[in-house]
C-alpha cells in the first residue's frame, strides 16, 4: 500500500471521528410525562365518538443546528395503568419533529404514525386496534435550566383506519418536559 493511500485513509478516519464528536455535541435528549385528552370519532359508523385520555410518556433524540431542531420521537399513552391486562386504552407512536429553539420556547410541528388499542364501548368485549398518521403542533416552554412545560394539539392526518371503518382523532396534550441541550 502506498504512503499516499495510507495518509488518505488516516485523514478520512480523522474526519469521521470529528463528525461523530460534532454529532454528540449538537445532540439533545428529551423526556416528557403528562396527560393527553382526545376525541376519537368513527366516520359513518355505529359507534359515534369516544373521549379517550391517558398518561403520556415520551422520549426524543434530536439535533440542534443554529437553533433549528430536528428530532425523532417515541410516545405512548395508557389509561388506566392496568390497561394492558384489564382492557382500557393504550397507544404507541413514533415519528419526526422539526422546530426552532428560541431563548425559552421551542415551537414545533411533528408528523408520525400511531397505533392504539382500546375497548370502544364499556359493554364490549371487542378490542379496537386502530392505526394511522398523526400530526402535532405545539411548544415547549423552559421554566428552569432544562425543565419546562409543554402543550400540543394532535390530530389524525386525515383519518386512522381499522378493517371496518375510518376514525378521526383530535386531542390536546399537556406535559412536563426535560430537555438536555
Individual helix count? 2
The helix/strand class is alpha+beta
Mean pLDDT reading: 81
Helicity, as a percent range: 10-25%
Whole-Å distance between the termini? Answer: 44 Å
- The rough form would be described as elongated
SSE topology string = HEEEHEEEEE
Number of strands: 8
Strand order of the largest sheet: 1-2-3-4-5-6-7-8
Q: Uncertain runs with pLDDT below 50, 5 residues or more? A: none
- Beta content: over 45%
The rounded Rg comes to: 21 Å
Main sheet? 8 strands, antiparallel, barrel
Explain what you see.
- With 181 residues, the protein is an alpha+beta fold.
- It has helices spanning 3-26, 83-86, and strands at 27-43, 49-65, 68-79, 89-100, 105-119, 127-142, 147-162, 165-180.
- An eight-stranded antiparallel beta barrel has the order 1-2-3-4-5-6-7-8.
- Strand 7 and strand 8 form a beta hairpin.
- The longest helix is centred in the N-terminal third of the chain and has 24 residues, at 3-26.
- The radius of gyration is 21 Å and the shape is elongated.
- The model has no long low-confidence stretch (mean pLDDT 81).
Amino acid at each position: 500500500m502506498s504512503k499516499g493511500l495510507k495518509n488518505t485513509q488516516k485523514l478520512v478516519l480523522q474526519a469521521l471521528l470529528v463528525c461523530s464528536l460534532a454529532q454528540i455535541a449538537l445532540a439533545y435528549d428529551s423526556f416528557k410525562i403528562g396527560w393527553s385528552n382526545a376525541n376519537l370519532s368513527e366516520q359513518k359508523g355505529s359507534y359515534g365518538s369516544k373521549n379517550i385520555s391517558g398518561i403520556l410518556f415520551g422520549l426524543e433524540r434530536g439535533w440542534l443546528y443554529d437553533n433549528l431542531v430536528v428530532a425523532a420521537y417515541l410516545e405512548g399513552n395508557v389509561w388506566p395503568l392496568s390497561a394492558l391486562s384489564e382492557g382500557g386504552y393504550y397507544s404507541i407512536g413514533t415519528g419526526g419533529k422539526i422546530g426552532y429553539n428560541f431563548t425559552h420556547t421551542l415551537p414545533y410541528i411533528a408528523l408520525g404514525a400511531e397505533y392504539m388499542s382500546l375497548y370502544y364501548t364499556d359493554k364490549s368485549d371487542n378490542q379496537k386496534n386502530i392505526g394511522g398518521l398523526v400530526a402535532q403542533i405545539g411548544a415547549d416552554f423552559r421554566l428552569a435550566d432544562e425543565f419546562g412545560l409543554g402543550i400540543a394539539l394532535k390530530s389524525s392526518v386525515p383519518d386512522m383506519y381499522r378493517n371496518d371503518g375510518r376514525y378521526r382523532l383530535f386531542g390536546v396534550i399537556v406535559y412536563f418536559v426535560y430537555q438536555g441541550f
